[in-house]
Design brief:
Distance between the termini: 23 Å
Helix content: 10-25%
Structural class: mainly beta
Number of strands: 31
Number of helices: 2
Oligomer: single chain
Number of domains: 3
Largest sheet: 10 strands, antiparallel
Shape: rod-shaped
Strand content: 35-45%
């Protein structure tokens, strides 16, 4: 009997050492979650229950449980490296089969999809037409490789001050080439529907009437529309046009694009003092753009940045959580699969209730505490030695009994 009891102790200590060795071996494995060997005593059970005089039949490995505590966040230089701070798992698709992972070391394959080293695709919520994300569906994240389409300028705003003490120009006949035919001018770059840049120039001419100015628009040296009147109050605020907006009308381009039709907002212009100041000039058009970078925020929103200053939302990284993460089936490569014991995956978005935040350009390190594992190793070694000594002692007693004459 002592041999069998001690043998169960040896097997238990061996299992403990194996679990500890696996933890130590994966100390540097990103996203690895350490395990713990859990033991239970054995008793002989009869139909009437456990006998009160039962000594016990040894020990068994009751469970090897995974420990889903948070690992340290290590920063990298790769914007596609993702670390979860808090609860949740990244969702990966392997030809439709879903797996779950904490290690967020991702890259881009030749088709532009975000994948891991096993070529499994990261799942995200696709953009919806209303500007949000469709959280009811999963899709593969694919980084765009085409250029960002241009947009023609339709709206522009100028924020400036016209001098209140200005006099009408010397030459009454307006000519852009004659500096004496206007008081001031300012320019801005605008774009047509093909993304070609055009220089738009606004000229300001002081009228004979008090607090009245005339403005003209020229694009690439060609007049657009006719003269428009700006009228200011005695306190310097614009009073006409009432809404501050002037539509100069459509004009053709020489690039094959659609005619440009721009409306300028002068609502924030003023007439104070004796100085002409341009504070801001903005317009809503932009040219074509090339992809220059990918940004992922703490909620998992993936944005593509282009050289024209535009950003395009490609999706939002989907996160999954489980009622019992310890019930997940280990698949290797620091991945898990859903099981009956884990419960069904609950999907959500990073930062929402029950889900952690995403850190771009970082990886979650293994949660193994090497010092703790070394102590466990020594403890398991002592347990193994003690059970081996028990076998040696039982053998000596048995040999003594056999040698009785």
């Amino acid at each position: 009997m002592p041999f069998r009891l001690a043998l169960s102790g040896l097997n238990a200590a061996q299992a403990d050492l194996t679990v500890t060795a696996n933890n130590i071996a994966n100390t540097a494995t990103a996203g690895f979650k350490g395990s713990r060997a859990e033991f239970a005593e054995l008793f002989s059970v009869s139909p009437q229950g456990v006998s009160s005089a039962a000594i016990g039949n040894g020990v068994r490995v009751a469970n090897v449980s995974q420990q889903f505590t948070q690992g340290n966040i290590d920063f990298t230089d790769n914007s596609l490296d993702l670390a979860l701070s808090g609860q949740g798992f990244f969702i990966l698709s392997d030809s439709g089969a879903l797996a779950y992972k904490r290690a967020g070391a991702f890259q881009v394959d030749r088709s532009g999809y975000v994948v891991n080293s096993q070529n499994q695709r990261l799942q995200a919520y696709p953009p919806s037409a209303n500007g949000g994300f469709n959280t009811g569906a999963l899709s593969d994240i694919q980084l765009v490789t085409s250029e960002s389409a241009p947009a023609a300028t339709t709206e522009a705003e100028v924020v400036l001050n016209l001098p209140g003490n200005a006099e009408p120009p010397v030459n009454a006949a307006f000519d852009p080439a004659d500096l004496n035919s206007y008081n001031h001018a300012t320019s801005l770059t605008t774009y047509d529907s093909l993304g070609a840049a055009h220089t738009a120039t606004l000229y300001f001419i002081k009228g004979a009437a008090t607090n009245e100015w005339t403005t003209r628009l020229y694009v690439d040296g060609a007049a657009v529309g006719g003269p428009e009147t700006l009228t200011y109050s005695s306190t310097g605020a614009l009073v006409a046009p009432a809404d501050g907006r002037i539509a100069f009308g459509a004009h053709p381009t020489n690039t094959g694009a659609e005619d440009m039709d721009m409306t300028f907002d002068f609502g924030r212009t003023s007439q104070y003092g004796d100085t002409f100041n341009v504070n801001a000039v903005t317009q809503d058009g932009y040219t074509t753009g090339r992809l220059i970078g990918i940004d992922i925020d703490s909620t998992g929103v993936v944005q593509a940045r282009f050289t024209n200053g535009r950003s395009l939302a490609l999706g939002q990284v989907a996160i999954a959580n489980f009622a019992n993460p310890q019930g997940l089936q280990q698949l290797g490569d620091t991945m898990w699969a859903e099981t009956f014991s884990s419960g069904q995956a609950v999907r959500g978005q990073a930062g929402n209730s029950g889900f952690g935040l995403i850190q771009s350009g970082a990886l979650e390190a293994s949660n193994v505490d090497i010092t703790e594992q070394l102590v466990n190793m020594i403890t398991a070694q002592r347990n193994f030695q003690a059970n081996a000594q028990m076998i040696s002692t039982a053998d000596a007693i048995t040999q003594t009994i056999i040698n009785i004459r």
